[in-house]
Amino acid sequence: MSRQSETSVIYPPKTSSGTFDLWAQVYDSQSNPLLLLEERHATSLLPSLSGCEILDIGCGTGRWLSKLELLGPASLAGMDCSSAMLKYAQEKIQATTQLYQSDCSILPSDDVSKTFVLASFVLSYIEDLQAFAQECARVIRPGGWLLISDMHPITAAERGWKRSFHVDSVKIDIAVQPWSLHEIISTFGQHGFDVQILVEPPFDTPERPIFELAGKLADFEDLTGIPAIYLLKLQKRMSHVVVPATHIVHKLQLAGSRLASGPATWMDGIVGIEGEYIASIGEDIDSTVPVLDLSGYLILPGLINAHDHLEFGLFPALGRSADAASYQNSSEWAREIHHVHAATIQHHQRIPKAARLWWGAIRNLLCGVTTVCHHNPPHPDFELPNFPIHIVSRFGWSHSLTFDPKLSEKFHDTPSEFPFVVHAAEGIDPESYNEIFQLDNMHLLDKRTVLVHGLALTPETISLINQRNTALIICPLSNLFLFAKTLSRDLLVSIKQIALGSDSPITAAGDLLEEIRYIHSAIGLDANSIYKMVTSNSTEILRLEHGAGRITESGVADLIAVRGQHDTPASALSQLTFDQVELVLLSGKVQMASQSIYELLPLHLRLDMQLLDVAGHQRWIKAPLHTLFEAAESVLGKGNLLVNGRQVNYHGAI
User: How far is it, in rounded angstroms, from Cα 135 to Cα 182?
Assistant: First the structure.
């Protein structure tokens, strides 16, 4: 890779086999940190390949072929458009490994003949992505795997990276296609592939010597925590007839449990789930549909966390000790932590951002949260079909008056039907109090405005936001940590539109359930009001659709199952702890299950679930835990992962 500002020759304008013939002369002798980074992460993503049929597309000089031979495949083939590359590969491989000279428009394989296909640093050279995806769909068997790796398109664009090599002191840049991750995932999805894992690792200590030897150590430091490549693991759907995913309807019935029909009452019934939605709530079981017997459990709607910063899911609390003076406002805290806790922040940022976002999502999933409003820019992983929770996408946002001079511009650029979320009045000083009036003077308080924290609110400013139909999201434990204060019960009940968030572990070391228990037991808010704050209130404030926050026919099947006997759903929720959340359904699919419920699941519902130990409690989760642990523990150390202050350990997969 190189920066765009360097002098180079583009040879040729359109990539051809001649370009790679030239590259073959030096390919094995020129160190490339991208390849080292890929090899470190790709190995753990490989499925069991013993006895499988494998094709390495764009095999080059055989870098991966020699490694794949060691895994005992039934057959192994490599293809490349360059005869020179294949000549070097021939010298490294066994006689049983076949080589083909071909471009990617026609793969040298029979229909549905391959179990695993590797496309390492190939996609950037492919001009017709649709045709390539179609060819992969043709040769890969149903249930088979495709692993794609390449330079990260966002980082490459932002940093001006180019694919290049040197021959006879001449630097040659190779023409590439800037496919985005969204384009890639969407295209392969159309051709029958589901995303299983997306990893976006940054350079780390093993790549440092390569930069140092090249005299580019400053580049290495500058890239800390920034994804350099991506690895995308796809699986072909079991039906080899390619149909849109929306046409594949999964069915399930939940029986034997009591259902929340709101904060005050339970109802009985068999919940029939078709695809993502609740198709029926009735008395009769359909003998043709799998049944999950949840006798002894209570079913609540999936909880809605109205405010979080997911990328801080593994961070410790950052602030002053309990005996030190409280901060006066959030600006003071923000300035101080980047000075006092700079080393801690930099250390945790070495974990790839994508992995941190996944851990933030798992932090919520463990306590029954199915939807989060993430108060930061969106990330491509949020669109993955296996991301652990729903992320609110239809909203505008700004950080705050203090830190965003373009707040007003962002507000007016947000579609009128979307809510607009902003931190405000987060402190205990006059500056925090005056922010409400500043926002009003800027005409930024109206029915779509959603304020976060509002600790400095008074009866006067509450009256103003009520007049403007403005909503508030509170995060009491965060306020307590920073300012040793929370809003009183009397003030809270006077606010017309109010929801609850957990904020992130850097200021609140608890989860949403701990926020719920705190405002019930310490502040004295009634259970019914709290129930609405994390269900129907959040739905209305964030303008969520498809029946989120309720258990209703035709509504989205976001559900949680908990043990216990309680008079009302609200009383159950007000006392709930994470270990009592034993099942989470996300859009009708089992996303998390306790060991007890896991043993009740039909075998097909257990697929892709991996076992997590949380402070001695076992939870099966549909997430690439092995990869996520590797990403985090490579920085924090083995056994040092804390989620909501609880140690987590990886126990395996089915």
Answer: 19
Rounded to an integer, what distance in angstroms lies between the CA atom of residue 587 and that of residue 231? Answer: 26
Residue 201 DSSP one-character state: P
- 448-493 pLDDT tens trace: 999 999 999 999 999 999 999 999 999 999 999 999 999 999 999 9
What are the Cα distances from residue 435, in Å, to 108, 156, 470, 504?
66, 40, 14, 23
Percent over 70 (pLDDT), the chain: 94
Neighbours of 289 (CB within 10 A): 15
Residue 452 has a pLDDT of 98
Q: How far is CA 315 from CA 43, 356, 505, 632, in A?
A: 27, 9, 6, 11
262-288 per-position pLDDT tens digit: 999 999 999 999 999 999 999 999 988
Mean pLDDT, residues 572-581 taken together: 97
Kindly indicate the confidence band of residue 47, based on its pLDDT and cuts at 50, 70 and 90: confident
Rg (CA), the chain: 27
Inter-residue contact 329 to 432 (CB < 8 Å): yes
Mean pLDDT (whole number) for 8-26: 55
d(C-alpha 614, C-alpha 619), whole Å: 7
Bridge partners (DSSP) listed for residue 559: 301, 585
Structure-derived torsion over alpha carbons of residues 412, 416, 417, 419, reported in degrees to the nearest 10: 30
Question: Burial, 413: exposed, middle or buried (Cβ in 10 Å; 0-12, 13-18, 19+)?
Answer: exposed
Share of the chain above pLDDT 90, in %: 72
What Cα–Cα distance (Å) separates residue 253 from each residue in 230, 291, 297?
Answer: 38, 5, 14
| 527 pLDDT above the threshold of 90 | yes
Residue 453, token pair as written in the block: 């924290």
The mean per-residue pLDDT over the stretch 178-204 comes to 90
Beta bridge partner(s), residue 99: 78
Q: With CA atoms as reference, report the closest residue to 307 among 386, 388, 385, 391.
A: 391
Beta-strand relationship, 291-293 and 251-255: parallel
In terms of C-beta distances under 8 Å and separation of at least 24 residues, what long-range contacts does 357-360 make, across chains too?
357/310, 357/311, 357/313, 357/381, 357/382, 358/387, 358/388, 358/623, 358/624, 358/628, 359/313, 359/314, 359/628, 359/632, 359/641, 359/643, 360/308, 360/309, 360/310, 360/311, 360/312, 360/313, 360/314, 360/504
Q: Flag whether pLDDT at 341 surpasses 90.
A: yes
User: Can you tell me the distance from the alpha carbon of 499 to that of 167, in angstroms, rounded to the nearest whole number?
Assistant: 62
- Distance between CA atoms of 199 and 358, rounded to whole angstroms? 11
Query: Which contiguous run of DSSP H or E holds residue 593?
Result: strand 589-594
DSSP state of 545: -
pLDDT of residue 626: 85
Cis peptide bond upstream of 12, omega within 30: yes
Q: Which residues, including other chains, have CB under 8 Å from residue 507's CB and lie 6 or more apart? A: 317, 318, 319, 333, 475, 478, 481, 482
pLDDT value for 556: 96
Backbone angles phi, psi at 183, to 5 degrees: -65, -40
* 229 pLDDT more than 90: yes
Q: Which residues pair with 254 in a beta bridge?
A: 271, 292
Query: What domains can be seen in the chain, in order of their start residue?
Result: 9-236 (3.40.50.150), 303-546 (3.20.20.140)
CB 229 within 8 A of CB 190: no
